[in-house]
Amino acid sequence: MWDYGVANIAPSSTVTASSRSNLAGTVVDGNNTGKGWDDWVSGGNFPKSSWLAFSWTSAQTAQEVAVHTFRDGGATWPSTVGVQYKDAAGAWVDTEVSATLDQSSEEAPSVSLDVSSLPATTGIRLQLQTETNTWQAISEVQILGTPQAQGNVCTLPGSTTAASFYQTEWQTLPSKNACDGNTSTAWLTWRGSGEYPDTESFTLTPGTAYDVSAVTFTNTEGSPQSVHVTYRGTDGLWHDAAEPTAVASNGTQTKVEFAPVTATAVRLTFATTGTFLKIPEIAVAGTLATDPAAGPSIESSAATRCVAGKAYVASSVKNTGTGSVAVEVTSAYGEKSFATVQPGATVSVAQNSRQSAIAAGTVTVTATAGGVTTQSAPYAATTCG
Questions:
Q1: What is the pLDDT of residue 2?
Q2: Is 151-288 the same fold as 7-146?
């Protein structure tokens, strides 16, 4: 099941720290077990109190904060973790939300803090306190919150990007530049060698599922030939969103529109034979996806039998739920629908193959009542006569 309507909004925040600020960004790099930030200092006079702060340009509604600590040769983690939030005036406000960590643990502990009682805020700060004489080390912090309902999914809190390649020879121009809302930065795939692959890809992964319906961008350098938009569904598989589309001339917008699809990631694959591309901004139009209603409860089965020398596929469907359902039974030999099947009732279908022998196969049963349930009922091969 996909966790609809919840996203990790920590990666889209600006992370600051009480010390060693150059390491602060490592706590939102997606690595829950690696060595991230710590408050180590030379001389062994380690601070008893440190903090990590996460700030956004717009107010966020947080539900849970997960803190993953790191064992750096010993129990190098906080004794307690407390939570503060930033009020409308920009002041940090103490809360009663806190957690105590086991200093005798053999493995670095992780803790979860329920912050659903906090108001929408532009900042969350973790107060890290230790009762030991060692430094405090944090691998990762995840802040689960309510994602934005709609807009350019590329720039929404919780979204991350990746690319098959980006320019680093003369300056660093990564994929995230195409989703920073700033047209003066860009994602660039130029290579000094002049040797270019046939394709380059850009992958956007939002913090949760969105119903997306269009992708827009303007290429400014190079001459990519086409773009193919695909998406990863809540089934974890990649699907076509649209047929490959020609990229407009440089400085002219390319827009790919398609029927809305529920996506947990969107990928743009560019045809770049003999060339590169440079894109300042990519816009992916999306609306927050909602959890589809659960399908009704049914039991289905199928079997073969012989009647007058012909093979039949006999199917039965029982409504095991508490409300009436509509049922459709489909096989290679036809389909049959039942508008209303009452709770506890069973319906049966016998479909004539008009053949004396048939191979093994399956019957597809679809039950609808608010949500949809689909089952496959196998049947064996048979020979009649």
A1: 60
A2: yes
